[in-house]
Every structure is written in C-alpha cells, then in structure tokens.
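Here is a protein:
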Amino acid sequence: MSIKMAKILMVDDELTSIEAVRCLLNANVDIKTAGTGKAAIDLLNNENFDLVLLDVDLPDISGFDICNHIKQQEHTKHIPVIFISGYKDLIFEMQAYEAGAADYLSKPVNLIRLLMRINVNLNIKLPIPKIG
C-alpha cells in the first residue's frame, strides 16, 4: 500500500489527542475522526479504512464494544485496531486484546512509538522523525 492510500479512522472524544495525531499523520495519510462510538460505526459502515485508532472511554459506547463490532463484521474484520487509552492497568490492555485489538498504547502516547506501531500494522513505511 502506498503512503498516500492509507486511510485511518481515529475514534476519541478528546480534541487534544485527535489534533496531536492529526499533526503527526496529516501529510502522509487520510485521517477521519469520530468523537462517539455511534459516529465511528456509521463511518465504518459507509467508508473503507485501513486502520482504526480507538479510545476505550467514549461518551456512548465502550471502545471494547466497538472493537468487538469491527471484528464481527465481514467488511471490517480485517482492519487492525490500535487502542490509545488513558488506562495504564494491564486489565484494560488484556480486554483490548480479547476484543480483537492489534495493539494497545497508553496516554500520553509517544508519537514516534505510535507512528512505528501504525507502520507495523499497515505494513507501510511512514517517515519517522529523527531523534536528537
């Protein structure tokens, strides 16, 4: 997949998280956002995505339930889901993997680490900024 073709859905109700990721990825991928689980499911039913970045805590539907939904639908079950959550406890990470997540990162997320995890899950090479 070419870099320009990557399409990511980010589901988070925190604007600061969305903006940080959008700044990191904006030049390289098409990123859509949803602030609720219902909005995310509507987008997933109407558009094709290559990857989903998903928060656990949303105002209407748990991120775990959304991930389960993604993995149960024929047209979305192939999409890797990376959780980005404020919960650092191992129990939440375990729940994410049980729901079908490809990866789990805790907030505040290191943006270079996030970019590397996206690279691995999309199987493409987005440019990673040099450190130092």
